[in-house]
Structures are given as C-alpha cells and as structure tokens.
Amino acid sequence: MNLKEAEDIIIETENKSVTTEEDEFRMVEALMFIFKETRECKPILYLGGYYYGKKDFDLALKYYDMAAGLGSNEANLYLGYVWYYGRTGQRDYEKAFKCFEAVTKATVGDDKEHGQVSNDDQVEASLKIADMYKNGYYVKEDYKEYKKIINKLFKDMKLFFEDHDVFQKYTEVGLRKARIFEQENKKEDALEIYYVCRYDLAVRLTYNLFFGDVNQMSWVIDDIYRLTEFDSIDFDLYDLFHLLKEEHQVQFLYENKTYIIESKKDKEGMSYRLEDKWYRTFNDLLLYGSVKGDSLPFLYGYNRLDDWRLLK
Fold this sequence. Notes:
The structure is a single chain. A 5-stranded antiparallel sheet has the order 4-3-2-1-5, covered by helices on one side. The chain has helices spanning about 5-15, 20-40, 40-55, 55-70, 75-85, 95-105, 120-135, 145-160, 170-185, 185-205, 210-225, 240-245, 280-290, 295-300; strands spanning about 250-255, 255-265, 270-275, 275-280, 305-310. It is built from 14 helices and 5 strands. It is about 60% helix and about 10% strand. Strand 2 and strand 3 form a beta hairpin. By secondary structure, it is an alpha+beta fold. The protein has a domain at about 235-310. The termini are far apart.
C-alpha cells in the first residue's frame, strides 16, 4: 500500500451508502498507514469522529486521546464532550473542563497539526466552560463568571459577525445572552435575539436535519412564547412546537394538496401524526417525517408549505 492507494480506499468507503465489516477494516488499516507514514493527527482525528458517529464511544475516546497526545487541541474539544456528557458511561467534569480550557487557550488558526483551533471551536469550548460555571460542574457555581464569558462572546459575535453565517455559533451564544436579558427584564432585547436564532436554525435545518438543532429550535419557540402570545391565525411549522403541546389538528398546503398534522394525548404523554404515520415526539416528526420524500424543514426552508390553518 502507498499513500495514494490508502487515500483511495478512504474515499471509496466514504462514498458507499452501506459499509461492511471488511470495508471498515480496510478503511482503518488505510488511515493507520497514513498516520504511520506522515505522523499527522488528521487520520487519527478522522477515526475518532468515525467511531463517535457510530456511537462506539470507547474507540472514539481512544483515538481522540491519541490525537490530543500528538498536540491536537481540536481533539481536546471532542474529548471535552466525551467527558462532559459521559459518552463512555462515566462523566468526568474535571477532565472535560481541562480539555475545554486547553481549547480556549489555544491559538486561533489553520495549523491544526500544531494545536491551533478554529474560532468556532474556541467559541464552543468557551460556551461549555460558561455552562460549567453556571451549573457548578467541577468549578464552584459562579453566575457572574458565566455572564462575563457570555457577554464577551456575544460582543465578539456582534463585532465580527454582524452579517453572520448561520452555521457559526451566533445561535448558541445568542440564546444564552437572550436569557440573561430576560433576567435583567430586557424582554424586547431578548425577543430580538430569539427571532434571529429562530431564523438561523430554520436555515440550518433546511440543509442539515441535525437533531441538536431541532432541540434548539424547540427551546427557542418556548422562549418566544414565554414572552409573547400565540397567534392562531398567523403561524407556521415551527410554531407547532408550542401549539401541539395540547391536542390539536392543523393543516397545511403543499403543491395544492392539503396535509394534516395532529397531536393526541395517550398514556405516555403526547403522540404526533403526519398523515397516516405516528411519532412519539414532535422532534421525531420533524426528523423522520416526510412529504413526497422531502422533510418538512427542507420544504419549509424553500417556502413550499403554505396556508397553515388550525382545524381544532
């Protein structure tokens, strides 16, 4: 095997819709060959991400640890999440804090082989450290320190990303800043941010149906309707997070055909129906439901869902 052959194996495996154990074995072998030849962190990080995506967190931890040992602060960010959320079955907030802290102290740049990180990586790590101060995880609970970190991040976001990319971390920072505004009784300032976050998340979900962004959208809608009244005449797809907390039926129009979404109470709480299919949560309906093969968030993003009506 040479480097070109190893890279071809990886590309070939990535392009397969279904991979076998043999495919995985060949890919891992190719990545380890590249690592031995180059001594670069990149193939090891790739393996960490591959196993994280497969939810094989023990192997993900192994490779992230290896990459961090080679000087990768990008790996430290991922290790922080492994320990923060206890992906291997054990939370370790001390290890998580130290991993995130290493990322916040790293130099921002493109030389990730030598410990540099992206601005987004540094913002992510700073957010987690802020949350740890807010909740008293490993460090002493300190709301003032939490606010200090969030206020600085939000100021930097407004300074550098006035025309922000929705895939940057404005939403993650903005939601925390808006809740600080709420506590300070600055409700209009909070709402302004919530509406920007709602828009950003809707755009994200048009292109990438990531469960984390679906969760964030549900929180944003809760935030908005904590401060405003629901309008039963003027609403759309994401307002259903609020409306369908109770039993209702709504309809919408797509390509001149009407479709029904229903929420119904059962012994386990609420269930949700899109046409003839039922889902345990509204999040699941958004993630797995479809109309003519396209997800509702995709169709919503391209303004193809019209005439929303509350039937009952």
